[in-house]
Structures are given as structure tokens and as C-alpha cells.
């Protein structure tokens, strides 16, 4: 796949089936994340990979947070199943180092770039992905389970797998609606 095709035609896909990217494919995905732009060389990233038993652990973490919140049963049931929508979920964490010139926001952006780079690396190798978030990403119990410290933040759950359907058409967007010249 040409780099520009990847950039211009990429779609996310929620329908993800086995197999998950493993071996060299997974290595490339992580390496792409590690090439995210990084002001001050702070490497503000942690990637927590869940597969198989790991997906069950992620499910337990989310369910526990919802129980602490006294969420309705329907919410808890939905959360319990959530991680199993793909054969692999990578929790992307911004590991924030306090720094005079690099505020936490820049480090969150860097982790976001890492998530995007990993999704693209998956697509480039014939896999697919879907970036998810939700209120649980910000929940204290979830942060504790992932050992977040200080200003660390989960920036997303990157669901990865093999495409389970054909990708949707890329939406038409008029450049003029987004671009201005100074
Ligand atoms: C930080 C972030 C969090 C997201 N969280 C969710 C989510 O929880 N649920 C969801 O349906 N889409 C979420 N999305 C959007 C999807 O990942 C996806 O980008 C969207 O469905 C548009 O599809 P496309 O990427 O093919 O244009 C999120 C995107 C970002 C950047």
C-alpha cells in the first residue's frame, strides 16, 4: 500500500475478527507508535496489549469502575462485553513527565499521534482498527488498575484485528470548509 493511499483512504472499522496482528506485524505496529512526534524526547507512551485472558482482565477493570459508580445493570453488561469486540485491544497511555517547556497537553497529543500511527500501521499490513474512548477512560479506578500516576492519561483503547467486512467509503469533505489562508 502506498503511503499516500493509506493517508487518504483509511477508514476505521468496528467489525474486527481473528486473527489479531501478532509477531512481526505487532512489532511493526508498536514501532510505528514509538515513532510518534515527541517534543523534548520524553517518550510519553505506554501501550498495554490485551488479548485472550488480557481482554477478560480489561473487561473486569471496566466493570469494576462501573460498579463503583453504581451504574445500571445494562451499562455493566455492555461494558463486560466491550473488550471482546476485537481480538486485541491496546490501551494507549500518555505517560506525562512534568517539564518546563513541554506541557501535559503536548504529551497527550504525542500519545494520540502514537495511537493513530499504530492504527495506520495495522491497516498498512492488512489489519484494521477502531479507536475508542468513553467516560471509563477517565475513571479513577481504571487509572489505578493501569497504574497511572500524576497527569498520566489514557488517550484511547485501540481495537485491532482482521477486517470483518468491507471498509466504508471515505466521506467527501470539501477542503474549503476547513482551510483558511493567512
Ligand atoms: C480520541 C478518540 C476517541 C474515540 N472514541 C470513540 C468511541 O468511544 N466510540 C466510537 O464509536 N468512536 C470513537 N472514535 C471515533 C472512531 O474511532 C472513528 O474515527 C470514527 O468512527 C470515524 O471513522 P473513520 O476513522 O473511518 O473516519 C474516537 C476517535 C478518537 C480520535
TrEMBL record:
Residues in Nitroreductase domain copies: 18-161
UniProt cross-references to SUPFAM superfamilies, sorted A to Z: FMN-dependent nitroreductase-like
Binding site for FMN: 10-12, 35, 39, 131-133
Assigned EC number: 1.-.-.-
Enzyme class: oxidoreductase
The UniProt record lists the keyword NAD: yes
InterPro entries for this protein: NAD(P)H_nitroreductase, Nitroreductase, Nitroreductase-like, YdjA-like
Keyword S-adenosyl-L-methionine: no
Note on cofactor: Binds 1 FMN per subunit.
This protein's UniProt keywords: Flavoprotein, FMN, NAD, NADP, Oxidoreductase
Entry similarity comment: Belongs to the nitroreductase family.
Family annotation (NCBIfam families): PRK10828.1 (NF008088)
Name of the protein this chain belongs to: Putative NAD(P)H nitroreductase
